Amino acid sequence: VQLVESGGGLVQAGGSLRLSCVASGRTFSTYAMGWFRQAPGKDREFVAHISWTGSNTYYADSVKGRFTISRDNAMNTGFLQMTNLKPEDTANYYCAATEADCSGYGCYAFPGRYVYWGRGTQVTVSS
């Protein structure tokens, strides 16, 4: 699976962005998908996860209530809607895909569980 993110950019605090992740190469609907982010000098951290059917979603506490993960399997695309953005959300955002059927934090929040990764899209939130 090849993953390509888009939709990043510069936004003021309180603003919104919608990230997209387009998949190609294999059947996207058989993979669960996650979003991670990495700021300079920091480890890659979990943001959100969605099951392959879209019926189960999980979020990091830091983004719960502000971010929404979704997917359109017919379009082979995943999304991350981000609202009420804060300067601490500034990072490079990556989408990733896994064949694992994750229902526990130790699975969906662990980068090592994901086999396929995009190259990332930069999100910068100014104060």
Explain the layout of strands and helices.
Blueprint: E1 2-6, E2 9-12, E3 17-24, E4 32-38, E5 45-50, E6 57-59, E7 67-72, E8 77-82, E9 91-98, H1 105-108, E10 116-117, E11 121-126
Parallel strand pairs: 2-11
Antiparallel strand pairs: 1-3, 3-8, 4-5, 4-9, 5-6, 7-8, 9-10, 9-11
Q: Could you please describe the fold and organization of this structure?
A:
There is one protein chain. The protein has 127 residues and is mainly beta. The protein has 1 helix and 11 strands; from the N terminus they run βββββββββαββ. The strands form 2 sheets. Strands 2, 4, 5, 6, 9, 10 and 11 form a 7-stranded mixed sheet that branches. Strands 1-3-8-7 form a 4-stranded antiparallel sheet, with no helix packed on it.
